[in-house]
Amino acid sequence: MKRLLFVCYGNICRSPMAEALARRRLGAAVEVASAGIGATGGPASEEAVLVMRLVYGLDISRHVARPVGLFDFGRFDAVIAMDASIYRHLREVWEVPEAVLYGWDIEDPMGEDYEFYRRTAAEIERRLGQFLAAAGLEA
What we know:
Blueprint: E1 3-8, H1 14-26, E2 31-36, H2 46-56, E3 78-81, H3 84-92, E4 101-103, H4 114-134
């Protein structure tokens, strides 16, 4: 597995946090990207930027939301949907093959407080560890 794409709704909360955490864990060995099914090009949410900086020491302040239509799904070994509705959308609308499509159950923190974002990031980190171990990318 060499290329991962994380997808949420707006690409301003969950998927940029997942992208940053995966990049830190995997380094240059794996290409990591993120996108949103409803992304409009805005920056990462203030809370996501703050959690990534304070808790993980990662800077996502320059992130710009990207719509999924910018990506060729055939280039990715794994497309990870952050929740069931995103999974269904990717499968039904974008016809992402089930062989590369993975679904997580990460609740969208948009509109919630810092603590909710911190818990969301911790859940993303936990799921990422499980995923990478199962894929043989990390012990």
